[in-house]
Design goal:
Layout: H1 2-13, H2 16-46, H3 54-57, H4 59-80, H5 82-89, H6 93-127, H7 139-167, H8 170-188, H9 195-200, H10 204-212, H11 227-251
Length: 254
């Protein structure tokens, strides 16, 4: 298994798109600084201002950017034909996919939390003691939200990996991730009550504040999940996607 991890790590860092995706995700730091400077200037003019914290407002950028790493970890091999050599070296397709999942998970988990932490710290340093809404709480109060946000990025990367294994198409897998992140939560709000809040509480973007026990999740009303249930639901996205991906990977010839 150690050989599988080493091989997958080598393949992941040898793909140029991995660095492009990491660079796109790291733009969150720059955008967070620009946003903080902008809202700080408005706060000085108006006396006080409640604004979205940059690590929350720009989270979708990190989620989509690093989800692409998961997608390309498998679809790039199908596109180049390298998948044949990979499965010859590792005949067990379950072992093959688990190896990819572990490497993608570790890389995206570390990258996501590093980017979120740098964005968080730099924004607070720039804001100083200005009366901004995202500057009202301390680091340890915000730690659950930062952790949940980072985990959501890793989950989306693993979802991308699973969907990539199932579809063997980069475009189809990325579109599916975008639909899951942006389209389905909007559709859920149009369902009749009480199903709108119940279904919305299970949508991936709404799981992060529920895991952190954040007050923003109160808009879900009766559909609100406990932190443990929300975390379980979040992890289930990755497990289901990887299971579906493994099913199709085993059934199809390469």
């Amino acid at each position: 298994m150690r050989m599988v991890f080493s091989s997958e790590w080598l393949k992941l860092r040898s793909i140029a798109s991995t660095y492009h995706a990491l660079g796109s995700a790291a733009l969150m730091v720059v955008l967070g600084m620009v946003w903080t400077i902008y809202v700080s200037s408005l706060a000085e003019e108006r006396g006080s201002l409640r604004a979205a914290a940059p690590e929350e407002g720009f989270l979708p950028l990190v989620q989509i950017s690093l989800a692409i790493i998961g997608v390309l970890a498998i679809t790039s091999e199908h596109a180049t034909g390298m998948i044949r050599a990979s499965l010859t070296a590792v005949p067990g397709r379950g072992t093959f996919l688990v190896g990819k999942a572990v490497v993608v998970g570790v890389v995206t988990f570390a990258a996501a939390h590093a980017i979120l932490l740098v964005t968080y710290v730099s924004a607070r340093l720039i804001a100083g003691d200005r009366p901004l809404g995202f500057n009202d709480t301390g680091f340890f109060d915000d730690l659950p939200m930062l952790f949940a946000s980072g985990v959501s990025v890793t989950v989306l990367a693993l979802v991308g990996l699973g969907l990539g294994a199932a579809t063997r198409s980069t475009a189809a897998a990325i579109v599916s991730v975008v639909v899951m992140l942006f389209v389905l939560p909007g559709i859920a709000t149009y369902l009749p009550e009480p199903w709108n809040s119940r279904v919305a509480s299970l949508m991936l973007p709404n799981l992060v504040p529920q895991i952190a026990g954040d007050r923003l999740s109160s808009r879900l009303g009766d559909g609100l999940l406990s932190p443990a249930m929300a975390f379980t639901a979040l992890i289930s996205y990755a497990l289901v996607a990887l299971t579906v991906g493994l099913y199709f990977l085993k059934r199809r010839d390469v």
